Amino acid sequence: MGGLPPRPREDPRPLKGVWRSLGYAWEGVLYAWRVQRNFRLEAYLALLALGLALWLEVNPVPVLLVSALVLSLELMNTALEALADLVSPVFHPLVKRAKDTAAAAVLLASFFALLVGLYLLLPPLLGRFGLS
Ligand SMILES: Nc1ncnc2c1ncn2[C@@H]1O[C@H](COP(=O)(O)OP(=O)(O)OP(=O)(O)O)[C@@H](O)[C@H]1O
User: Fold this and answer.
1) Is 91 a pocket residue for ligand 1 (Cβ < 6 Å)?
2) 30 lies in some domain
3) pLDDT tens across 7-51, in order?
4) Which end of the chain is more exposed for a tag (fewer CB within 10 A), N or C?
């Protein structure tokens, strides 16, 4: 395990600290990408939805916002799972509550993202194929 980084006020080069923080955050993204199949699936779906929005000339901002919400919640879920496994590697009802609730947050956001995607993209998509 690596040592802890210097505390912000003790760091003689604060800007270097910002880059270091970005590096740690990127490590988190790579970790989630490696171990979480759902994170990869959600990232691919977000790219697909963004590509469709651009192709259909639909405002891509809502797609970006809901994608950011789902992916961020998946990262938080991954973080919570790691902590829960550290605290209680064996079955504990409270860990079950915590993990299930964190997973529910991702599920809920994904459901609403799907609704936003369908509402925004389906009508112009059907129009492109002459089905509207
Ligand atoms: N230590 C534990 N104590 C109690 N229940 C647990 C524990 N670990 C896992 N569970 C239960 O199993 C479910 C799945 O947990 P797990 O950590 O495997 O996540 P997951 O849903 O498979 O997520 P992912 O596939 O994203 O890793 C949890 O939602 C919870 O209900």
Assistant:
1) yes
2) no
3) 656 666 767 789 999 999 999 999 999 999 999 999 999 999 999
4) N
Round to whole Å and give the CA distance between 66 and 113: 5
CATH number at residue 77: 1.10.287.3610
The answer, yes or no, to whether any atom of ligand 1 lies below 6 A from the CB of 40, is: no
What pLDDT sits at residue 4? 72
The ipTM value here is 0.91
81 is in an annotated binding site: yes
Alpha carbon of residue 113 to chain centroid? 12
86 located within any domain:
yes
Tell me if residue 36 falls in helix, strand or coil: coil
Domain count, the chain: 1
**Residue 86 to residue 115: CA distance in whole angstroms:** 36
56 is in an annotated binding site: yes
The neighbour count for residue 42, using CB atoms within 10 Å, is 20
